[in-house]
Design brief:
Layout (H helix, E strand, L loop, with lengths): L2 H17 L25 H16 L2 E10 L15 E5 L2 H12 L6 E5 L2 E5 L10 E5 L2 E2 L6 H10 L4 E7 L8 H12 L12 H15 L3 E2 L2 H12 L7 H6 L4 H4 L3 E2 H64 L26
Parallel strand pairs: 1-7
Antiparallel strand pairs: 1-2, 3-4, 5-6, 5-7, 8-9
Helix pairs in contact: 6-7
Amino acid sequence: MSFDQWLALNDLGRSRTSNRASPRVSPYPQRDRTPPQRLQDEASPATNAASPSAHRTAAQHRLQLVIQPIVKNTIGQRDTSGEAPDVFAVNGATFNDIMRKIWTKFSCRVKRQAVKRDGTWSVEEPLEQAWSKVMQFKSGRHLVDSTKNSQAWNRWIASTRGETVKLMIYQYGLAIAKAQDLEEFLTACIRRVQTDRSGAAAESSLQEVVEELKEIWRATFQADPIVWRMWANNIVRSMDRSTWNREILRAPPDYIARLLRPAGVEVDRHLSSLTRSARLALDCVNASLADNEAQSQHNEVQRQLITRQKERLLQRKSTIEIFLADIPLPSINDVEDPLERIENVEDIDHEE
């Protein structure tokens, strides 16, 4: 008897025995056991057809890294004094896949990347490609070299299977080695340089943010000066000066957005105002031309009246001259003196 025939008879005997078995009595729930799986070589054609997707899924989780994040201000700060979030386990096909997931999870813990060039501190945005400038792995008591290539990183992750690796996350990057460096950087780039007596942002700082807001958002929004100042005040309220540029690039808060007007509406309104002003000026010119024409007509009437008056005066002058010509005056020699003909009456009233 072959082995396969023996298995068939054994299964048949079990089925008969199970059919004659008494009902199951147990205080515990019955569990359906999964039959043993065959090896890959003995699998059915359907299983072999689905194996590529299974291989891809297995490849995506080929590497696993378990990390204990520790957020620190400086490199010299003790690990025990740093903030320790929950342990994070991540899978991936390569180290780059794993690092991309780690960056997505913990990049929010990095506030800014401090950079010191020629003794001057400056601030840069941390990038995923330059994660080694703000993060560091630590296995046991030793820091892991961050200059490995991809293959070396893959081998290192494989060697840490079953272990928990520390991930040092520096809020301002690896350039801050000690507390003195942190204080110098905060004074130069983070803390407000100018404040008023109450500790709020000074007028110069507020006006600087207003100008930056207008420079970036003027093509999109239009608003009254007080609205720009309200928006700027909302930004400078944070004591962290390094966050101002990021907040300026963000969309305005809801209570500010309600006070803003689209730039296109303002342009249309401005063009309409210019058109109305131009038309008003044209109406004024046309009215002046009409007044000039009326004055010219009035002057023409006055000229005609003056001409007619002159003609009447000339006619009267001619009439008087003709009259004088018809009645000539007598000669002075022909006029007699009436005194010679008057009798001299004696004055008797005044005689004595």
